[in-house]
Write a structure and sequence with these properties.
two-stranded antiparallel ribbon; 7 strands; alpha+beta; 2 helices; single chain; 81 residues; globular
Length: 81
Amino acid sequence: MHMQFEIYIDGQKFFSNEQFITGRTIRKIANIPSKTALSFKVNRTDRFILVADNDSIDLGHPDSEEFYTESSVYQTNSIDL
């Protein structure tokens, strides 16, 4: 039986049939332009790590499914004064 992995990109749910997924594949799944920054949210923190096209993410780890594009990272971390 083939397992599906859920990933969230800017809060929108997508699926991958692969446990290991590259930044390039994430971009294709969500139709993210190459010039838009893609970040991975470090589980249980407010830290983000940029994901390059050749970076590989193991979706088998718990909490490894949250990704954000450049504009949504700024919105998530915005501060109202």
